[in-house]
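Supplementary Text 2. Reproducibility record for the structural model of the 368-residue chain.

All settings were left at their defaults, and a single model was retained for analysis rather than an ensemble. We include the record here because the model underlies the residue-level annotations in Supplementary Table 4.
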Amino acid sequence: MVRFVLFSIFLVIPGLFSDFLLAQTESIPNDTPLKVGVAGSPPFSKFNQQTFEGISVELWQEIAATTNLRYEFIAQPGVKVGIDQVVAGELDILIGPVSITAERFQKVAFTQPYFNAKIGLLISGHSTSVWSRIRPIFQVAVISSVGGLFFILFIVGNLIWLAESRRNPEQFPQHYVRGVGNGMWFALVTLTTVGYGDKTPVTKTGKAITSLWMLITMVAASSLTAGIATVMTLLLSTDATTEFTQPQDIRGKQIAVVSGTTGEKWAKNYQARLLPSPNLDQAVDRLKSGQAQAVMFDVPALKYYLYQNPEAPFKIANLSVAFEDYGFVLPLDNDLIRDLNIAIIKFKQSGRLEEIIEQEIQGDFDNQ
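Retained model, structure tokens:
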């Protein structure tokens, strides 16, 4: 009997002990804060060593408050690095202006979109002065061409004078300066196909020279007309940046991009000559220095840059390269994503999300 009781106690005690341990484990709250990476550019994410601000940051803070989430912010040098950190398990969530793409969806999960952004171009905003429009006329190549034309007129004028001065001194005087001058005048009106008829060669040699000159001027006059049309186009043009009127105009252009962003992807798709930079400020510096003809990036960030730098001689081109949605990034098969999606939808429906966006952007603008 004693042995039976001891045996029963031996069987029951381990079970009670295991239940006690399980109960103790379930009652311990999960106090480990989420590691939230912050990446991207203003106005969605702005941070230094102490503070984190921006549309994405404020939205996350309010969502975390409503869902009782504890977290700590960790600054990331870029969106690509932040996504890699999520994949590696170093971050629980990545927030900021992170575009939702099919390529990224293969390795991470995204929440519901909370913002729809446009990819655009930052270009030079200098108004074209009259001098800059007529400056091509005074380039060395143009001046040398005009000088070459007068030299040819001088040669033809001399030839006509030599052929006509003895038998036709009334129209081509034997005095050298007057005679050659009349010869050049005759060559010029023939070149321009005006043909006043006030000067006419009468010798066979003069007529032969004139016939040859007429054949030459048929080509020369066409080139002259085309050149004048080009110059007039430059003079009458009112927009110095009309080369960027559609995405196809990006092909072959020097475009500054931020490495690892979707702007880089779109510039590559349109076969631009890429000038990668680690951040937006350095990309804009390439535009300032003339290395780049434009900067391709998210339009909200480009607008924010112009708000922050109203004296900058830039503007946003009137074209849309692409439209993309922003979302928060989480690891694949994360249980938290459902709660975040519900919170984002509630913020959209209540109008709070729009208020956050307007407050952040307007607040930055008012501080200028």
